[in-house]
Amino acid sequence: MRRTCARSVAVSTVALLVVAFWGLAPSSAQEDEPPFAGLDSAINESLAEEAGVPARDPYINTEAMGELWNLILLVAGGVCGFIIGRYWDRMFGRSKPQGG
After folding, report:
1. Over 60: is that where the pLDDT of 95 sits?
2. Residue ranges of the alpha helices (H) in 1-100?
3. d(Cα 47, Cα 31) in Å, to the nearest integer?
4. How far, in Å, are 10, 21, 67 from residue 18 at the CA level?
5. If we measure between CA atoms, which residue out of 60, 54, 85 comes closest to residue 72?
6. Is the pLDDT of residue 71 over 80?
7. Among candidates 54, 35, 38, which has minimal Cα distance to 46?
8. How far apart are CA 46 and CA 53, in angstroms?
9. Rounded Cα–Cα distance for residues 45 and 63 (Å)
């Protein structure tokens, strides 16, 4: 039992370290423009040119702030998970005791 538990902890630790360092590895292709820039930017720029209004940056540019958008989603998910977990019995009812 202890060997199985120790082995699973060791494998989990190694897997976590590999995933963590994989994200820290520098990418070989450093480009200014992403290779697949999305259709929304191309369509928005063409519509702005047709209307005679120059394209501008958004008011809140989360792309320029790095991983801010991911942090916002992570925090919001944690808050929602806490609220749902805290009030689970009120939302879905308590489980009935089995047996007896």
Report:
1. yes
2. 2-24, 39-51, 68-86, 88-92
3. 26
4. 12, 5, 21
5. 60
6. yes
7. 54
8. 10
9. 17
Rounded Cα distance, 61 and 72, in Å: 13
8 Å CB contact between 61 and 55:
no
Question: CA-CA distance, 94 to 100, in Å (whole number)?
Answer: 17
Q: Check residue 52 and give left, alpha or beta (phi > 0: left; psi -120 to 50: alpha).
A: left
Q: 55 with 48: CB under 8 angstroms?
A: yes
The two structure tokens encoding residue 21: 């360092």
**CA triplet 43, 47, 53: central angle to 5 degrees?**
135
- Give CA–CA dist 16/71, Å, rounded: 20
pLDDT for the residue 3: 65
């047709």: which residue's tokens? 50
Where along the chain do its domains lie? 60-94
